[in-house]
Write a structure and sequence with these properties.
Layout (H helix, E strand, L loop, with lengths): L4 H9 L23 E4 L1 H4 L5 H13 L9 E3 L26 H10 L3 E7 L15 H11 L3 E5 L8 H14 L5 E4 L17 E3 L8 H12 L10 E3 L12 H13 L4 E3 L8 H7 L2 H7 L8 E6 L2 E7 L5 E7 L5 E6 L10 E6 L4 E2 L3 E2 L1 E6 L4 E8 L2
Parallel strand pairs: 1-2, 1-8, 2-3, 3-4, 4-5, 5-6, 6-7
Antiparallel strand pairs: 9-10, 10-11, 11-17, 12-16, 13-14, 13-15, 13-17
Helix pairs in contact: 5-6, 7-8, 8-9, 8-10
The structure holds 2-acetamido-2-deoxy-beta-D-glucopyranose (2 copies).
Length: 389
């Protein structure tokens, strides 16, 4: 255990209402001290990708200002490779859509101060049928490193039926063996409760099946991810899947909820829309620096659902500096008053806390005991509570 882990553990244990961390020793690759931020091609483009889209997205990450807010990974998902290996057994970029090769794209992305992610699979083939890395872990990790890849998303299709606990650590060791720091994102869809074993294997692990761009999919992924909160820690994060904000299937209020809850849960913030054609509402949501700061807080404790009354929910988690992040989430169909009681979030009722509304960007007068707000249907209010001295 690293020397800083123990004091942190004791500190968390002392905060009533938030429980203990359960994560074991984190993977020692120096990455993921806060949840990863960036973009991934899948949610918007699916298999319809090419190198021009990747380059233009990298350009747009910089020109929109998203890159300087911390969204540094540009991640290529499935469909970048030829459907067979070359005569030496190497994966090869798909000549029809990635004619310059992955190394050239990595160089392009790096020149913009960004990092490049790629995708493979712990099976014989990826979900879209390109060669998987099962049995080729060391060869594939070596070629990713040689190309300058900084991140690997590792899927679970067409596997051999053995447990993920057996297949995923092989790639973990292969990546470490390259001596290039490569962020390792496990995508076994939460099948074998990866929170309980993956913190020594990867930097994040999916806790759910794929998200789709609708309210019920998004809310159910949040609830499934919530039960693993105690296992998140710097170096390894629960992953309820990538963001759908900007893809058009939810209302602006619903996208506010999506972003607020993902930030509070210390989920990866991987943008899933077409950043080249991003709208103002979408950019405003993704660019809220105060919400991003909750996600990236150094304490690294996943916030969770702390109280629920029908469709009205309180989610909260501790931040550095004895602050507390709170999301009041109205899953019902009409505007409602939601109250967070200090006792629900580990505070003594007599504590004076100064709330700041992170979407209104407004400081409120100090509160003692509780805080109430009207919350619109499918929307949130998000606050940071800071102790007054
Ligand atoms: C949301 O997406 C899921 C998964 O694709 C689908 O089964 C469901 O019908 C969708 N719900 C709505 C309301 O569109
Ligand atoms: C949760 O919310 C309900 C309804 O507002 C409230 O009665 C209760 O005191 C709260 N706290 C707990 C721990 O249930």
């Amino acid at each position: 255990m690293q020397s800083w882990v123990l004091p942190l553990f004791v500190l968390i244990a002392l905060i009533p209402g938030f429980g203990n961390r359960k994560g074991t020793h984190a993977l020692n690759n120096g990455l993921g001290s806060t949840p990863q931020m960036g973009w991934n091609s899948w949610n918007h483009f699916g298999c319809q990708i090419d190198e021009q889209i990747i380059r233009e997205t990298a350009d747009a990450m910089v020109s929109t200002g998203l890159a300087k807010l911390g969204y540094i990974y540009v991640n290529i998902d499935d469909c970048w490779a030829e459907m067979s290996r070359d005569s030496q057994g190497n994966l090869q970029a798909r000549a029809s859509t990635f004619p310059s090769g992955i190394k050239a794209i990595a160089d392009y992305v790096h020149a913009k101060g960004l990092k490049l992610g790629i995708y493979s699979d712990a099976g014989y083939q990826t979900c879209q049928g390109q060669p998987g890395s099962l049995g080729y872990e060391y060869e594939d990790a070596a070629i990713f490193a040689a190309w300058g890849v900084d991140y690997l998303k590792y899927d679970n299709c067409h596997n051999d039926g053995s447990k993920p606990e057996v297949r995923y650590p092989v790639m973990s060791k292969a990546l470490l063996n390259t001596n290039r720091p490569i962020f390792y994102s496990l995508c076994e869809w939460g099948q074998d409760d990866p929170a309980t074993w993956a913190s020594s294997v990867g930097n994040s692990w999916r806790t759910t099946g794929d998200i789709t761009d609708n309210w019920s999919s998004m809310t159910s992924r949040a609830d499934s991810n919530d039960k693993w909160a105690a296992y998140a820690q710097p170096g390894g994060w629960n992953d309820p899947d990538m963001l759908e904000i900007g893809n058009g299937g939810m209302s602006t209020e619903e996208y506010h909820s999506h972003f607020s809850i993902w930030a509070l849960m210390k989920a990866p913030l991987l943008i899933g829309c077409d950043v080249r054609n991003i709208g103002k509402d979408t950019l405003d949501i993704l660019s809220n620096t105060e919400v991003i700061a909750v996600n990236q807080d150094s304490l690294g404790v996943q916030g969770k659902k702390t109280n629920q009354s029908g469709n009205l929910e309180v989610w909260a988690g501790p931040l550095s500096g004895k602050r507390v992040a709170v999301v009041l989430w109205n899953k019902g169909s009409s505007t409602s008053l939601i109250t967070v009681q200090w006792t629900d979030i580990g505070l003594s009722p007599s504590t004076n806390m100064k709330p700041r509304d992170l979407w209104q960007k407004q400081d409120l007068p100090s509160h003692k005991g509780s805080l109430s707000a009207q919350v619109v249907s499918h929307g949130v209010k998000m606050f940071i509570l800071t102790p007054t001295s």
